[in-house]
Each structure stands twice: as structure tokens, then as C-alpha cells.
# Entry
Amino acid sequence: MRSQWFVIHTLSGQEQKVKESIEKRIKPEEMLEYVKEVLVPMEKVVEVRNQKKTVSTRKLWPGYVFIDMVLLDENKRIIEKPWYFIQETPGVIGFVGGEPPMPTPTEEVEAIKSQISASEDHEKPKVSFEIGETVKINNGPFLNFSGVIEEVEPDRGKLKVTVNIFGRNTPVELEYWQVEKG
# Structure
């Protein structure tokens, strides 16, 4: 029997506890042959608080845990031992997809994993900006100036903002975390 990815619906805010509980109980409850991997998809987000850049993590799918496990036999019937192992985990509401639960395509899980690893390398801002929007600069040489966004570069995390300095409009390149919505 091969493992497949399934999605578990959890109580809000309990995703990490469910993951840790499953991982802690795998060995003592002899589930090594059934459970392969447990995943709570998270990404890094950046925000500015009190003139300081802070990096935190945010759940991509709040209320859900992904699990790579053997749950269905060759005839697509539920195997009871792993089914009850998950159902009896504190914080679990149930499997997504009815009975028997539908496996999540591996390609989707791989896409989620690549999104997670991309956020490891590249921090994502907590807010999104739009062209024409007015922002207030809260860091750097143009502190407390206001400007209008002319260009947004989400891949680089930069903005081109036009700032009025001494009566002249001057384009300035800033990082997302250096501005706040005006």
C-alpha cells in the first residue's frame, strides 16, 4: 500500500498542536508504517512595528493540516487503525473530502512545499500595495514624507514612490517595510 496526501480539518489555531501530537504518537502507537509526513504550511511575512522590521510566520491554510499517510487499501476502503489514530487526535475535526476522504494530488502538495521554501528565501510583506496609492515613509532619509506609488515590484519587495521634495517630484525606490499605508 502506498501513502497519499490527505487534508485534516482542525480547530482554528490548533494546527501546530495537532501536528506535534501526531508526530509524538507515531512511534508509541506503532504508526510508522502508516504516517510518513505531517505538514502545516507556513510562510514568512514582514511587517514594520515601531520603525522596526519584524519577521513572523503566517499559516497558508488556517484550520488545516496536510498528512502523507496510508489510509486507504487497494479497494479504496478506509483502513481502520490509521483512521482512528487521526480521528482521536485532540483538535482534529475530521478529514476533508467526505468518506472515504479524497486524497490530495501530489502535485498540489509539491506546489505548496515550493511556495513554503520560496518564502524561506524571500520574505513576503504583510500588506499589498497598489499603483496610485499614497504611502507614508517611516524609515530612511525620507522619514515622515508622503508619496504616491508609481510602480510595484512584488518579486523584489520594492516600490517606486514619487515624493515631493522642495517643490519637485522626485522618484524614490523603497522597500515594502519602509512605508506604511498613508
Notes: The chain has two domains: 4-125, 134-181.
